[in-house]
Specification:
The chain is α+β, with helices and mostly antiparallel strands and about 290 residues long. The protein is built from 12 helices and 6 strands. Helix content is about 55%, strand content about 5%.
Length: about 290
Amino acid sequence: MNQPDETSRISSLIRLIDDRDEFVRSRVRDKLIEIGEDALPFLHLAANEEKPLKSAQVREIIQAIFPKQIGEQFRKLASGGHGADLDLERGVLLLTEFGHPDSRSEEISQTLDRWAEELSPKLSPKQSPREAIETLTRFLFQEKGITGNRERYMDPDNSYFNKVIQRRTGIPISLSVLCILVARRLNLPIVGVGLPGHYIVKYDSLDPIYFDPFHKGRVLTRVECMDLVNDFGYQFEEHHLSASTNRETLVRMINNLIMVYHRNGVLEKTAPLRDYVKILMDPHSDLSQQTV
């Protein structure tokens, strides 16, 4: 189908969005969602029409298309490079866009840039790894007042970075990722460690130093890490202390959100998130037969 034919088709469908026949309205909605991103410019124009009911229906279709757009962005992210790890910050920002479509990714990255600039003079090449960790955690968890959200642990906003930064609170994995993203801007070798039940980070060196961002950067011994795993009901295995890949970290963040939305009864959010996990694990997966 050539471009004029596609434009005419989309325009015809939009004219039928508020048709009197419910079956027609349903079919039109499904077709426009199937067309996806190509229909958005026309839908945005229609959303500004003076008919309140039609505008509301158009906005609902736009919101249904949006998760598919995010999914395609995740596919591009997951496909980058041959066997290379993905860009964690980009993945976190895409996830935030899913939860908060009005969020501004550039503002989140700019805040992280600014925090790294503020922290940089406090660091010294002469500092030991332990001193560097203390400087980093003092800055984030004392000066910036970031803390673990124990009272509202199951709040989905604990995983969306616009809210993590705005409210200065989060869960273990989001606060760990915050440490990682700030540290990377300063060339500090801070990496994630996906302990079962509780995500932490470590200063990655021959003698690694583990610390817990959810508890204001408390340093953990290897034995304390093992105890933490056991306390969550798992049998400790040596690989639990290995650095998590960016892909593993992002998938774990999404799986956490799936669990939160499921427990909170917001089931409509779980389907696209499950698809994002599949895309990240296999960028070539075909989701055409699934509802996103």
